[in-house]
Amino acid sequence: MTESISNFITTMTQYPWVFVAISFIFAATIGSFLNVVIHRLPVMMKREWQSECNFYLNEYHPDIVKQVGTERLQKAIDPFPEKYNLVVPGSACPKCKANIKPWHNLPILGWLMLKGKCADCKTGISSRYPIIELLTGVLIAALAWHFGPTWQFVYASILTFVLVALTGIDLDEMLLPDQLTLPILWLGLIINLKGIYTSPEDAIIGAAAGYLSLWSVFWLFKLVTGKEGMGYGDFKLLAVFGAWLGWQMLPLIILLSSLVGAVVGITMIMAKQLNKGNPIPFGPYIAAAGWIALVWGHDILNWYLSTL
């Protein structure tokens, strides 16, 4: 087994384009699953919150239950009584409920074969699905080219998959679920016990500094304006990059994410797609900046220091 893995790594090192192509195909397939995560995880979370509300009302406010009626309350609290998770029910058209055939679920190609429409009722299928599959494939292919067949590539791919899911969810719901950010935070600390990307000390300090830096900005802004400028999920996401890349990368990530966020926000206001004062998700900009720092962070810092 060990010899087979060693031979595979040797072959992939000799033929990097083969490794990049295999990585792209595999990642695009994972991207298809990430579409499911982006759509279903928020629904699953809302169902859980609704169930907790239902339990609270039944436990502490039986008078409300009596007035509304148990059946009516249950229907309002849990509008999806059927089993619902990342696997069940199977993929189906949201309009006609026709099951999607396996070959139509092929990443990118399935959407192209269907010409972006349901095979049965011809309802349009969002182009976001192939875009996420393509984006995931391209990002992992870039990691394969940069890191080669190494453990750095494996862990960076896991982080990238989670970042794609978090970005999609934040754009849809303005939410960065703890179910995704916390496990990847702990994974960053664990892998850096062996110094995969940075030293254990820098990883621990980076996780704390990443969280506390945005936490401090949040409270300063709230004390001055009385408003909340960002969500707690943003603190945790920056802590993720501190844990993975060390505290030294945090200024670069904060600078890049703030710059891109400002440019996008101003552009949307000028295009009248966003009103002043309306919130925009900041997670995608942190994710993009962190991914850039993961791949080219040291090169960027070395270039900047060489210009001083």
TrEMBL record:
**What residue stretches are annotated with the Prepilin peptidase A24 N-terminal domain?**
25-147
In Gene Ontology terms, what is one molecular function of this protein? Answer: aspartic-type endopeptidase activity
Predominantly, its location class is: membrane
Residue ranges of the TM segments: 15-38, 153-171, 180-197, 203-225, 237-270, 282-305
Q: Which reaction does it catalyse?
A: Typically cleaves a -Gly-|-Phe- bond to release an N-terminal, basic peptide of 5-8 residues from type IV prepilin, and then N-methylates the new N-terminal amino group, the methyl donor being S-adenosyl-L-methionine
| Localization (cell) | Cell inner membrane; Cell membrane
Residue ranges of domain Prepilin type IV endopeptidase peptidase in the record = 158-266
What Gene3D superfamilies does the record tag this protein with? 1.20.120.1220
Q: Name one GO cellular component term.
A: plasma membrane
Q: Which GO terms describe its biological process?
A: methylation; signal peptide processing
Highest taxon listed in the record's lineage: Bacteria
Q: Which family does it belong to?
A: Belongs to the peptidase A24 family.
Please explain the role this protein plays, according to its UniProt record: Plays an essential role in type IV pili and type II pseudopili formation by proteolytically removing the leader sequence from substrate proteins and subsequently monomethylating the alpha-amino group of the newly exposed N-terminal phenylalanine.
Identify this protein by name.
Prepilin leader peptidase/N-methyltransferase
Q: Origin organism of this chain?
A: Shewanella frigidimarina (strain NCIMB 400)
